[in-house]
């Protein structure tokens, strides 16, 4: 077991959650240059609050209402698209993918149209870059890495242009920082690329700037920074930040995932067990969130924590629960990976039980 470091499957799940929040909320301050700021901002804030609480229908209604205050602008389709991607990641499904792609296309069309009339409009550059960034996020989830890289390059160009036009648009640094940090990870899948500089520290500082000085992006930046800190093995800092988020949004599955992974990476197994159990409760409370992929990921994480706590009988129970779920397979490749990991953990647990003579050996033959 690779103690203290999230598995590839774990990193992928957490990365997607972070990216979904990253581009959804980083555009929170955007609006057409001549639109009533207070009205649009209020609708956006309500929508984002609903999104944080995973009340997706209410959030979607708020983002649809944004069209009233930014008619023909990119705000409404962008936030709708962002919410769909966040929901797809949360539920572990592709339901809504076609609508998501159409809304992203509409956002790009509207933002590009605004820039033809006003090439220096920071908000239009911001929406355009965030839309490309969101599509890149989706392409990563679908393992379309070349397409993701291309959209990522478009995103960074537009977001960079946005801060050139308005350096006080601090929320934009969330998208920029996320790109600068994550491009190093993405580049490993594109081995034909020339040398890619390591901009992780730069990216973390930009995300921290968004967390400390942004208006709408603070929470999303905080969640992104948590993951980056875990990657850098700065666990104490990550624990402090994730504890704040869980306290503020105790019923959020998104932040519960972050909490479980932070405690796992820190090897604080008692708190990891508590976090996984809380996440399991939250998943089971929402039928749509109770996908086979979410359940096996959560139960396997719990099983790992129990194994490290040397509670082997309970580990076997969770491994069995994972393997029972294998009867209803999910097409996502991560599902099969977790099932294989569960078989391996089950065998190792059986060996431990046999060594110490505390229980009967469970037959683990398939």
UniProtKB/TrEMBL annotation:
PROSITE patterns: PROKAR_LIPOPROTEIN, TPR. The keyword NAD does not apply. Keywords: TPR repeat. This is Tetratricopeptide repeat protein. It comes from candidate division TA06 bacterium SM23_40. It comes from the Bacteria. Coiled coil: none annotated. TPR repeats lie at residues 40-73.
